[in-house]
């Protein structure tokens, strides 16, 4: 994420510079269409860290949220990241804002949202301009109430064990894929906090071990951006680029209970073969279980969810499955979260001098051992000596 520009939002003018509206109920789908200076119109209760980082990276001017950006249910970092980055957030604007036509010019005054439509300025809705101090206070209160969410998460986990224990205990329901996982290292890339940096930090490992590369939804694009090709892509396919879908990777479309998958229509329109797999859990669960049950030697996870806040950020009942799947595949699972920040090597002056010294020694050895090189060096020396003699003659004559 780019460096945050801290700004006191109490000093915001009553009139906030507007821009072109981009509207979508799914924030991660909207990110693919945003341009710097746009107004992002979303319906996202409890904006999570990943969504906020995406909006900051896209350099949007304003975020209009139909829902409440932070309910206080748990300490979600999204609103804090947006306000700290100097992005104006209009909160609780109501469902009418989701009806704003795509591309409409939007202006904001005192939280009131105006659209320029058919040459006329019309008020569409009114929200609340979030202040940084208020967001920080809400976050502090939410931290104190995290125990309640922990209890809910535990109940959810127990319920999932009862309903989906066959997925955890046996591989009978897993999709029948062509990719061969046996005795392979498998690198699973999920679009999570710091996933791009962590993936790049593993270049040496990828080059030497050549693991199978599995992209989970947008994680596939991180693989392609690094100049590599995914072996498999797993997800609902709503946030994967067409380039990734056409990369030749085996596609497993994750459908939610009932068979719905947001990106299935795209796959069918592109006429790409795929496997449709219905599961109440998450796409990263499917990737890990597939690798584990099909005989992988090691699973290296990048960008996956590793703590309670990240589980709650997803806001889905199936996040309990991620916790349980980690217990299932634990013996061969290595989490690479934060590896990109663990160590950043730099070339020291002493190391450089030692390298130059070693090169000089190597050249000296080559000259000493080769008669041809000795003759060549002697000829060069004689030429230098003759040139110096002529210079002396010219100076002193």
Structure notes:
The protein has 397 residues and is an alpha/beta fold. The protein has helices at residues 27-30, 49-57, 78-84, 132-144, 146-169, 195-201, 203-209, 219-225, 242-245, 264-270, 283-293, 308-313, 319-329, 339-342, 349-369, 371-396, and strands spanning 15-23, 39-42, 62-65, 88-91, 105-109, 112-117, 120-126, 128-129, 185-190, 212-216, 232-235, 250-255, 275-278, 298-302, 333-335. It has an eight-stranded mixed β-sheet, covered by helices on one side. The protein has a seven-stranded parallel β-sheet with strand order 13-12-11-10-9-14-15, sandwiched between helices. Helix 3 links the parallel strand 3 (62-65) and strand 4. Helix 5 packs across helix 13 and helix 11 (283-293) packs parallel to helix 13 (319-329). The longest helix has 26 residues, at 371-396. It starts with 14 loop residues before the first strand and ends with a helix. The relative contact order is 0.10.
Mean pLDDT: 82
Radius of gyration: 29 Å
Q: Number of DSSP helices? A: 16
Shape, per Cα inertia axes: extended
Total number of strands: 15
- Residue share in β-strands: 15-25%
* Strand order in the largest sheet: 7-6-5-1-2-3-4-8
Q: Provide the low-confidence segments as ranges.
A: 1-13
Largest sheet: number of strands, sense, barrel closure: 8 strands, mixed
Helix content: 40-55%
Distance between the termini: 71 Å
The SS-based structural class is alpha/beta
